[in-house]
Amino acid sequence: MFIRTMLFVCLMGGGTSAVHAQQAAPSTASKVEVTGNAVTPEVNTNTLSAKSLTVGSDLDTDTNTTVSVDEAAFDQHDLSPIGMYKGADVVVKSVIIGLLLASLVSWAICIFKSVQLNIAKRNAKKLLKHLIQSESFAKANHTLLLQQGDALTLLKATQHELQLTGEGLTTDEGLKERLVARLERVQAALSANMNQGTGILATIGSVAPFVGLFGTVWGIMNSFIGIAKTQTTNLAVVAPGIAEALLATALGLVAAIPAVIMYNHFSRVIGSYKAQLADILTAIMILVSRDLDRKHPDAKHIAYLLNDEDAADAVSKEL
After folding, report:
1. Strand ranges (E), 37-139
2. Where would I find the MotA/TolQ/ExbB proton channel domain in this sequence (predicted)?
3. Could you give the CA distance from residue 95 to residue 255 in angstroms, rounded to a whole number?
4. Would you list the domain boundaries of the chain?
5. pTM for this prediction
6. pLDDT tens, 207-229?
7. 98, HSE (Cβ side, Cα atoms, 13 Å)
8. CA quadruple 7, 12, 14, 15: dihedral sign
9. Which tens digit of pLDDT belongs to each residue from 169-193?
10. Burial level of 254, CB count in 10 A (0-12/13-18/19+)?
């Protein structure tokens, strides 16, 4: 009886453990999937999503850090013209200062030459008008004593030569040759005086771009040296130095382009002034030649060339 009772208890305990094993089997099967002989573990999506969020947050942090570094690099550099000048190298600063001075010199010459040429051309025009309307050199010289202008130097040179020639004997042809030679030299001197300053404009117009290019090359060279020292190719670090270097080229063009335009303009105006001086020289020689012919022994009236019958009759009666 006792043995039967022990067997019954053992059977009851084994059944209970089998039931517990069957209840726990579904939870284990949910985690492990059996396919043939291979066992594939189930991926826990919650864990992966948490890890992906962690990685994404790390990437965002790195991106924000990079952007903040770039912004900080740009904030450290003032990219205005004055700021780029302050941050430039000593050589680049010297180039910038030189180009600014050259530009100021060009505009000063432009203002001075404009005023000088306007006054000279106006006085030369008045002088030429009086010479054309005058009957003799003596009357023209007396009328223009109160006028001013460089062109009056031609009249003074003519009067001086007449005074020197009057001290001795001379011929008409000799006097004319001496007057032409003297007046041509005075005309050349006046033209050379009017050309003063234009050579500086030509020099600035031709040299300023190369000076600006030198400053740019020097600044870019320093930028590459900075890249080698910092061992970074970040644009935020390189861009300010390159911008400072390119500022020199920009200022070179700013100084050169107006200088070239001014030089071409003044060349045309001075050419027009030289033509006026040539006309004045011709008018003076006409007056002198007219005065000489009036006193020449072989001189004769040319009223018949004017188709003036009354004057021709008067001339014939005199003869």
Report:
1. 38-41
2. 165-273
3. 12
4. 81-295
5. 0.66
6. 999 999 998 888 888 878 777 77
7. 19
8. positive
9. 778 788 888 889 999 999 999 999 9
10. middle
